[in-house]
Description:
Blueprint: H1 19-45
Amino acid sequence: MTLNILFFSITFKKREVSLKEAANQEMVEKLYEQNKDRQISMHHFM
């Protein structure tokens, strides 16, 4: 009788975000929200 066992170990490490990356991400989210609001207002206008 042969018993073959295979184990995997997966480790997640939180990535540190620099101040520049965080500011860029915030700007992207703000622009996305503005465009979404503009699309909604144009849809209600028509």
